[in-house]
Amino acid sequence: MDNVTVVDHPLVQHKLTLLRDKNRSTAGFRRLIKEVALFLGYEVTRDLPMTKEHIETPVAEMEAPKLMGKKLVFASILRAGEGMIEALIELVPSARIAHVGLYRDPDTLQPVQYYFKAPDDIADRLVIVVDPMLATGNSVSHAIQLLKDEGANNLRLLCLLAAPEGIAAMRERHPDVPIVTAAIDSHLNDHGYIVPGLGDAGDRMFGTK
Fold first, then answer.
1. Which residues on adjacent β-strands are paired with residue 194?
2. CB-based burial of residue 2 (10 Å sphere; 0-12 exposed, 13-18 middle, 19+ buried)?
3. Is the pTM of this model over 0.85?
4. pLDDT at position 1, please?
5. Partners of 65 in the beta sheet?
6. Domains (range + CATH), the chain
7. Of the candidates 133, 138, 147, which has an alpha carbon nearest to the alpha carbon of residue 184?
8. Rounded distance, CA 152 to CA 132, Å?
9. Over the range 125-150, which residues count as b (16 or more CB within 10 Å of their CB) and which as e?
10. Residues annotated as part of the active site
11. For each successive 10 residues of the chain (209 residues), what is the average pLDDT?
């Protein structure tokens, strides 16, 4: 699909299968979320702008590559996004973190906001929005609009799973935002869950129902 990258690396797909298993323990689920997020983090940062810096190795001087400009922002959609943030921070320790607190109304499936905090200079940074599930797309689209309203103009979405309905919603509301995911599943059920999916990522990650 246009503007959607599916990371089909064998290790990603294997670990995703382990995540989907309903018998996976909370600890195991949490560990696998982190491992898959690390792989996806490599892909979503693949084309970060680079520059050169003159350094001296123990053997010789050289012009060595390094990241250019201000470091990026990971924008975590609470609460499930937090399960991926730990791995991403290990990948980019200097990254800033934004938090968007949303929950989905079970009747309308529309997002309800309860918290928002982002760096003041977000307009000058690449912003990677992090949420395990792109289901209806309502919450993610709302979060991206909040970030845009704060000045963000260079955004990407990182998720574990995506449904066609969520991708369609993103195309309609935010066609400028690329999506990186580990899989595109079949459809949404009547409750707005991805099928076959992996259930409620937040509940499985934190051991709640």
1. 188
2. exposed
3. yes
4. 63
5. 52
6. 4-206 (3.40.50.2020)
7. 133
8. 21
9. bbbbbbbbbbbbbbbbbbbbebbbee
10. 104, 108, 200, 203
11. 90 96 94 95 93 96 90 90 91 93 78 90 94 92 94 96 96 96 95 91 86
